[in-house]
From TrEMBL:
One of its GO terms (biological process) is calcium ion-regulated exocytosis of neurotransmitter. InterPro entries: C2_dom (IPR000008), C2_domain_sf (IPR035892). It holds the Pfam family C2. The chain crosses the membrane at residues 30-52. It comes from the Eukaryota. GO terms for molecular function: calcium ion binding; calcium-dependent phospholipid binding; clathrin binding; phosphatidylserine binding; SNARE binding. Residues 133-278, 287-416 form the C2 domain. Gene3D superfamilies: C2 domain. Keywords: Membrane, Transmembrane, Transmembrane helix. This is C2 domain-containing protein. Belongs to the synaptotagmin family. GO terms for cellular component: axon; dense core granule; plasma membrane; synaptic vesicle membrane.
Length: 420
């Protein structure tokens, strides 16, 4: 018996592409083809744009870095180049450490002041270890007892020395009429830059004046006259000092103090015009208030909490719209972080803020950081009017800073002197 088996017929390849049939009409086929071509062109465009963007950013970054750091890093690049061909296994490690040191040094050197910095920020570094002062100031003082009017005339500054041959002096004189209001109770003792203890008397600024700027002269002539009327409770001249600072003008408001003259009016007979000539002395600070600060350091998150609790000043005249606010900034490794402002609080004898500001610190040792507080007086009705009352600087050499480091994560409060 013979069994018949059916074998499938072997498939032969399609002879032509036309034998492949698609169950779509012609318009649908053309639509699918158009969409495919559009997507392909879009993908190619995105790819080309990303490649162009990558090349452009890389070129700009290297060009900017070379332009800024070419002069500052020239000496270090030569040292690095000598080590690249040594062939030692630790060559890469040495290059990385050199690069880190070089970049950190450049960041500290490149922290230049902005053009919009205020006079308050300029006063922190303007009196850097002045050991010798040259020159004298000639002026006249007169007090009219009938009108209770004090008249001060700045005549001439003589004997100033130019700092170098490339730049010339642009001197002017800033005058402050200081009145001894009360005795500080919160601050134990204030020291000047020479380490000598200052009197804890709280001073207040009655008037501020400023002469015109004389360009390119070491013996400038001024002839500017200023006057003010002293009220009944301040006509005792033995409580009033006249402080005159000779400064070198700077367009960024960072004026350099060349020297100062202090005149206790109570020790002079100024019932008639009295002309004097005094030698310039090393500038000193005056205690104009007290600030209660709270500090807390959070080492895990590398944050510093600065709390402004109270500000104590002397009230000379009572204004209903007078208010105070503070501007606090932190400086690390000669680089100033972004400052923060407190809210505006109505001024009284002891102004209470009770505000805490948070600062995120960079990866630098905390000993290289400083806290700078500037207190301003403003008028609520005049938003553009502000007046610097005083400043304070707090760093690793202060007792408050050491107490904060010994008790981390705990707020430590202490009174500090507000100087001007």
């Amino acid at each position: 018996m013979v069994t018949l088996m059916d074998y499938p017929v072997p498939l032969r390849p399609l002879s032509a592409a036309g034998e492949l049939k698609m169950p779509f009409s012609e318009p649908v086929k053309y639509c699918i083809l158009g969409i495919s071509v559009t997507l392909l062109l879009l993908a190619l465009g995105i790819l080309a744009w990303q490649a162009f963007r990558c090349c452009t950013q890389t070129h700009t970054t290297y060009t900017r870095q070379d332009t800024v750091n070419r002069d500052q890093l020239y000496s270090d690049e030569k040292l690095t180049a000598t080590g690249k061909y040594s062939g030692a296994p630790s060559t890469k490690v040495e290059d990385v450490s050199t690069e880190v040191h070089r970049l950190s040094r450049c960041l500290s050197q490149a922290s230049l002041p902005s053009s919009g910095s205020s006079q308050a920020e300029g006063d922190f570094g303007q009196q850097a270890n002045i050991k010798k002062v040259d020159g004298s100031l000639r002026f006249s003082v007169y007090y009219d007892q009938l009108q209770s009017r004090l008249v001060v005339t700045v005549l001439q500054v003589e004997g100033l020395l130019e700092p170098n041959e490339t730049c010339s002096l642009q001197p002017f004189v800033k005058l402050r009429l200081m009145w001894a209001g009360s005795v500080g109770v919160g601050v134990e003792s204030c020291k000047d830059k020479e380490g000598e203890e200052m009197s804890p008397v709280l001073w207040t600024v009655l008037q501020e004046w400023r002469t015109r700027v004389v360009k390119g002269s070491c013996n400038p002539l001024f002839g500017d006259q200023f006057s003010c009327i002293l009220q009944q409770d301040k006509d005792e001249l033995h409580h009033i000092n006249l402080r005159m600072e000779v400064r070198d003008f700077d367009k960024f408001s960072r004026h350099t103090v060349l020297g100062e003259v202090r005149v206790p009016l109570g020790q002079l007979n100024i019932s008639y015009p009295l002309e004097l000539q005094e030698d310039l002395q090393i500038p000193q600070k005056d205690l104009v208030g007290e600030v209660l600060l709270s500090l807390k350091f959070l080492p895990t998150s590398q944050r510093l909490e600065v709390g402004l609790l109270k500000v104590r000043t002397v009230l000379t005249e009572i204004y209903s719209d007078a208010a105070l606010y503070a501007r606090i900034s932190v400086q690390c490794n000669q680089c100033r972080l972004r400052y923060q402002k407190t809210s505006v609080v109505a001024r009284c004898l002891v102004t209470v803020f009770n505000e805490v500001l948070m600062f995120s610190l960079p990866e630098f040792p905390l000993e290289q950081c400083k806290i700078m507080v500037s207190v301003y007086e403003t008028r609520i009705t005049r938003k553009s009017t502000k007046h610097l009352m005083g400043q304070l600087t707090l760093g690793s050499e202060d007792k408050h800073w050491n107490l904060m480091m010994r008790s981390v994560r705990q707020p430590i409060a202490k009174w500090h002197g507000l100087l001007i």
